Design the sequence.
């Protein structure tokens, strides 16, 4: 029976059908749903790892044991896992191993727009790139065959549009291969220099054989067209745009394996058309390959390397037509991102703003602390960078910035890669104040568990990391917990720890307001007779508060009753409470 599945769900289905038994990932949009969907199959052991490096190493261990394994991450997560990636390319595998990476062209939920195809080329690993859900399922099963036939991990490249779009798939049955026996083989798996030198030629020969396979593989196909004045080479979601715009007007070389690329197939296709055009998102990866073959082609001169492509962008270059259709004449008001009503981070960021502090930020929904009216963040680089950056910032300033600079980091991000920065802070005696924003969940990617929550991916109770004990164990003596809904307590904690002459950690602890088990007192009341229109309540940027006719108005459908705004009102106009 055919089904509509998200691209990510289709990958998970492919894992199940191919007999995968082990999945380890770190949640990262747009890749998260692969692992969440895989966890629903009882035959697959699935887990959230603390970070992508650990996930890849665990998946390699499962492969070494002779089982088919998988790890998934977003594009910036592959940076974290790059260390094992390049070395397992040398060792090869035992059981088949797939590495899924989901790129985020357009930066819908990412801090950069990198193109993961470069990793496949640099690590000398094969990369498959599906263009819809049906191919996502098919390519996943194919990837395990390639992995075991060529003794290599295989990278599956997804992107936001394919990962989060639905299309029709035809599910099959599960076929689980027998576990391959593990045999001790130091020359293959122990990558000290002597062994690694012998493995490099193996990697090069393997890549040559895979390139030969790619020449005749069905994943790379030529679709005939009526007009050979132009031929198009494309892949992934760009293929969908090309077909929607051009139909069968022009011949298309659709690439499902984007590394290694089929040199002969590309050259023959180029000879069959008058003008060769490469349509691809982000970098001119395929275009550069074609040019290195000596082929004249059009590409990034017409299609930007910035942001996503679209049907309209492709149509404008290939047909010179405007396919935007009916356009709205009314201007749509912008809807900037904002912390949710009742978000536990709001009170803490208000405190940081109030004290005019320099704030080194991190990756998470709390990054919205950078948005007006709070504007309480000075940098956001990558997972865990806030603590390491704070240490360097304070050391470089000779200690002068210690009393007015903090780092903020979420509980999941702290476990991912922040704890090593804290170890560095303690070890090198950096007088720095770190604030861990503990909302009891991984909020940014949709409420996934992490090592501090006490539950695993399937919701079963498990070991729970005690943040206070962990911080003390790495050498931080000053560790305190504060409720971010209590503005007076937040203010006191921040001032006292900044004044201390040693490393300190403040844990701002309250569960995410959107967690199902969190019970809220309900919306508070606003009294227009007492409100003087001073707009002090607006300084926290809560979406439940607005001003109408010069008075504060509470949206009862949004307000959770957290009470933070009542502490800002000096006139008892909100909830009848005065500022502490």
Sequence:
């Amino acid at each position: 029976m055919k089904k509509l599945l998200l691209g990510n769900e289709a990958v998970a289905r492919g894992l199940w059908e191919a007999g995968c038994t082990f999945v380890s990932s770190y949640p990262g949009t747009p890749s998260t749903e692969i692992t969440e969907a895989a966890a629903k199959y009882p035959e697959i052991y699935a887990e959230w790892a603390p970070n992508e490096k650990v996930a890849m190493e665990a998946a390699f261990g499962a492969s070494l044991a002779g089982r088919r394994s998988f790890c998934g991450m977003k594009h910036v997560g592959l940076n974290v896992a790059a260390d094992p990636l390049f070395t397992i390319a040398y060792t090869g595998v035992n059981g088949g191993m797939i590495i899924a990476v989901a790129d985020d062209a357009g930066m819908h939920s990412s801090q950069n727009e990198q193109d993961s195809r470069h990793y496949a080329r640099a690590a000398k690993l094969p990369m498959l790139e599906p263009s819809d859900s049906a191919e996502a399922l098919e390519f996943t099963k194919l990837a395990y065959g390639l992995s075991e036939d060529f003794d290599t991990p295989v990278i599956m490249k997804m992107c936001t549009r394919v990962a989060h779009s639905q299309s029709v798939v035809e599910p099959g049955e599960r076929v689980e291969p027998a576990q391959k026996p593990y045999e001790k083989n130091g020359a293959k798996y122990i990558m000290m220099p002597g062994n690694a030198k012998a493995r490099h030629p193996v990697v090069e020969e393997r890549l040559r054989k895979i390139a030969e396979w790619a020449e005749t593989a069905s994943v790379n196909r030529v679709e005939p067209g009526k007009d050979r004045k132009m031929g198009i080479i494309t892949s992934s979601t760009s293929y969908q745009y090309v077909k929607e715009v051009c139909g069968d007007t022009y011949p298309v070389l659709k690439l499902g394996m984007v590394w290694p690329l089929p040199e002969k197939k590309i050259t023959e296709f180029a000879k069959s058309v008058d003008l060769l055009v490469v349509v691809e998102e982000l970098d001119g990866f395929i275009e550069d390959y074609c040019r290195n073959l000596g082929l004249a082609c059009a590409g990034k001169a017409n299609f930007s390397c910035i942001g996503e492509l679209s049907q309209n962008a492709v149509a404008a270059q290939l047909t010179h037509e405007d396919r935007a259709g009916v356009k709205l004449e009314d201007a749509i008001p912008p809807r900037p991102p904002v912390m949710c009503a009742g978000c536990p981070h709001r009170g803490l960021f208000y405190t940081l703003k109030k004290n005019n502090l320099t704030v080194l930020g991190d990756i998470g929904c709390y990054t919205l602390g950078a948005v007006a009216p709070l504007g309480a963040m000075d940098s956001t680089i990558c997972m865990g960078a806030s603590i390491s950056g704070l240490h360097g910032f304070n050391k470089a300033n000779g200690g002068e910035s210690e009393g007015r600079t903090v780092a903020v980091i979420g509980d999941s991000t702290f476990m991912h890669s922040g704890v090593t920065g804290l170890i560095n802070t303690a070890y090198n005696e950096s007088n720095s104040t770190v604030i861990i924003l503990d909302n009891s969940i991984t909020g940014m990617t949709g409420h996934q568990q992490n090592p501090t929550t006490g539950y695993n991916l399937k919701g079963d109770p498990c070991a729970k990391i005690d943040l206070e004990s962990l911080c003390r164990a790495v050498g931080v003596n000053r560790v305190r917990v504060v409720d971010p809904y209590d503005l007076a307590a937040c203010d006191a904690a921040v001032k006292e720890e900044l004044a201390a002459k040693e490393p300190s950690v403040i844990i701002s602890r309250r569960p995410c307001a959107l967690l199902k088990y969190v019970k809220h007192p309900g919306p508070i009341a606003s009294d227009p007779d007492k409100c003087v229109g001073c707009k002090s309540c607006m300084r926290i940027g809560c979406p439940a508060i607005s001003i109408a006719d010069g008075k504060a108005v509470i949206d009862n459908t949004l307000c959770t009753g957290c009470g933070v705004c009542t502490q800002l009102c000096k006139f008892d106009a909100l909830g009848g409470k005065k500022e502490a």
Q: What stands out?
A: The two ends are 62 Å apart (CA to CA). The mean pLDDT is 95. The first helix runs from residue 7 to 17.
